[in-house]
């Protein structure tokens, strides 16, 4: 980890946000107690066996017992010394942490410094604060250097502590343990049919069980110093992460204070990218949600450097613009200042053309309103288009104000409307309903994606809010074909049904792995909870193909669970390969196996959820017209292809209870419609 590139806001927060030295002090105390108990047991055992061998029990059996007992006593003595070493190293880790914490700048001091800088910059109208700004920045640089030095020192000392640990010596009976398992510190390994319960860690200093790593207070981690469960990585405060320094669950990446992110340092959930403050972004440096692009401030933008919502383009300030550098709403073109302009370089509202100043002009280079033609100055009709009811309309058949498109009911639209029962404001899209939409055939507010229903969706055929991935049902999803909230997986295969998954095809929540049924799994194809290994049925397994709990070994079997037909399945009664869950089966007599399902009773391939029939579905009871179709459906009780939402039948749809193709909204029976009841 390169701590020098992280500002003091992050390094200080990482040091002060954790549980402190308490858990490691408890571990040191526990190891000290264990060392004493093992030493006492060794002395007592040796004394008892010596009395037996020199007393009434003589002969060959006594001699054999004496040899075995001496071997076990030596192992107890060695284990006591190793436990004492672990206690000392845990105490050394505490000392290293306390020294680093003392050398780290308090987050409050960093925040105060940044607040002082913002105040000075805001009042620096004439440059009078330049010396004070320089002084504040110099102090900030000193904070940065102090934090980096503290973190590097802590990393070096903690690494030295871990490297100096001696692995526990197996007991004399370990060679006879089922599955090649090692019994450490007296924990038993039980074999209950094909169900195994392992109670050991394959490293030192762990407070939990089933870890492949050191100093984990949690269980089933592959890595070190994790304060949660089933993480693959180091220093995670949370569960089901693949990466390090995460403060949430189900992340794939590093330094995420949220959940379900794929990337680095996202303050929020469901992002694909880095340095986002918000949820459901596909890109980096976004302050907001549901954006596709970089450095957007707002929601539902497709592009870069936009301030507002529902823009398709770059550097727009406003809503529903299609183009670049527009200031206003519903403009189609570039560098417009105003709303509802169809063209470029206009200052005003409802102009159809370019470089106009005024309202409702049809033409170019006009100054005034209602002018038809080019290079005119003056006043024309209330509307320069035909069949309009209102003022400043340069399009045709509009009811309202400043529309340069046609057949709109509303204000400031440069796209064409749907007609009766739909109202449009500040939209540049064709046949959209709502406010500030630049996506064609969308219903809602601030959608730059086509055929979306909801608010601030930047991708196509989504139902919900702040989705930057396609065909999602829910909120803050940056992956594709997800049903739920904050899912960033699914872009290459199928999304998940649940919350905050960064893997694909999961049924559950907080999974950074893929094709899992359950929660907090960082491995793949697991049925259960908190598994960092693969193809397990159960809980807290860091090995592979285990059926049970707390196992850190790999089992030499084809499946975990029960009654499968095929290989690499977990759960119960699945047919095929790489399925998790229950009763996922072939869809007809011509297809023997299925692949990549999670959940319950799915028929097809790569489905997540319950009773889906087809391929690439997430949700509940979704289906396709033919058994060979790739559906790409999310939601509940949909039939067709490329659908999100509820109770829809057709293709390319979002919303609720629609029955045709290319539709968004609610209760529509016509094709290419948005809004309500068309």
TrEMBL record:
Source organism, top-level taxon: Bacteria
PPE domain location: 2-166
InterPro entries registered for this protein in UniProt: Mycobac_pentapep, PPE_dom, PPE_sf
GO biological process: response to host immune response
Protein family according to the UniProt entry: Belongs to the mycobacterial PPE family.
PANTHER family, per database record: GLUTAMINE-RICH PROTEIN 2
Protein name: PPE family protein
Organism from which the protein derives: Mycobacterium orygis 112400015
